[in-house]
Write a structure and sequence with these properties.
GO cellular component, one term: membrane
Cofactor: [2Fe-2S] cluster
Number of domains: 2
Number of helices: 2
Helix content: 10-25%
CATH topology of the largest domain: Rieske Iron-sulfur Protein
Radius of gyration: 27 Å
Order of helices and strands: HHEEEEEEEEEEE
Protein name: Rieske (2Fe-2S) protein
Number of strands: 11
InterPro entries: Rieske_2Fe-2S (IPR017941), Rieske_2Fe-2S_sf (IPR036922), Rieske_Fe-S_prot (IPR014349), Rieske_Fe-S_prot_C (IPR005805)
Distance between the termini: 95 Å
Structural class: alpha+beta
Strand order of the largest sheet: 1-2-3-4-9
CATH architecture of the largest domain: 3-layer Sandwich
Domain Rieske: 125-191
Strand content: 15-25%
CATH superfamily of the largest domain: Rieske [2Fe-2S] iron-sulphur domain
Length: 205
């Protein structure tokens, strides 16, 4: 007598196992799960990048840009013009490190004759990146005063000399503006090192 498989003892009939629709559904589900996992991983990487400090090799992107951030070229920074606000850009994830305003910098081009020799190693094609946070009370520095070649904070009118390593020239600011070292790679502005000092207002002793 032949052994006849019991339909109740198997999970699926041959017709179900070989169903093209089921195979297609399984493939679609697997692809969806894979994409969801990759999307979550990319989001985690982007969040980590946004909240971390500037890294060597980061590019710079305009802080006021719309849409997808793009790496800036040194040629975009014009001489004797209002400074350009920017954030470091993680080239791996494409995310700006804008999770903290302490990462924000202002880009300014300084004429060679106005650039102190000690500052030259921090410049990329004459372009310097200074912290945009005033060292007095943390207001944002956004103005350029052509008359005396200084960066100015409008809150209490502190002035800083970009050509002299962010030295305080006027006002109540207690210390120089931190510099973010730059270099050029194929004309693109790239971070070459950490801030020369902690950005923002110095903590009380």
């Amino acid at each position: 007598m032949k052994n006849i498989p019991c339909p109740a003892c198997t999970d699926a009939t041959p017709e179900t196992v070989s169903s093209p629709d089921r195979r297609k559904a399984l493939k679609s589900t697997s692809a969806l799960l894979l994409c969801s996992g990759l999307g979550l991983a990319r989001q985690v990487l982007a969040d980590d990048a946004a909240n971390s400090h500037p890294k060597v090799g980061d590019q710079l992107a305009r802080a006021d840009s719309e849409g997808r951030p793009a790496a800036m070229h040194s040629a975009e920074i014009l001489p004797n013009a209002r400074p350009v606000p920017a954030f470091p850009l993680d080239p791996a994830s494409g995310a700006m490190r804008d999770g903290s305003r302490l990462n924000k910098v202002i880009l300014i081009r300084v004429a060679p004759q106005d650039l102190h020799p000690d500052v030259q190693p921090y410049a990329a094609g004459g372009v310097l990146a200074y912290s945009s946070v005033c060292t007095h009370q943390g207001c944002e520095i956004s103005e350029w005063v052509p008359k005396d070649q200084t960066l100015m904070c409008y809150c209490h009118f502190s002035k800083f000399s970009p050509g002299r390593a962010g030295e305080v020239m006027a006002g109540p600011a207690p210390r120089t503006l931190p510099l973010l070292p730059l270099k050029e790679v194929d004309g693109v502005l790239v971070v070459a090192g950490p801030f020369t000092a902690r950005p923002g207002v110095a903590k009380s002793a």
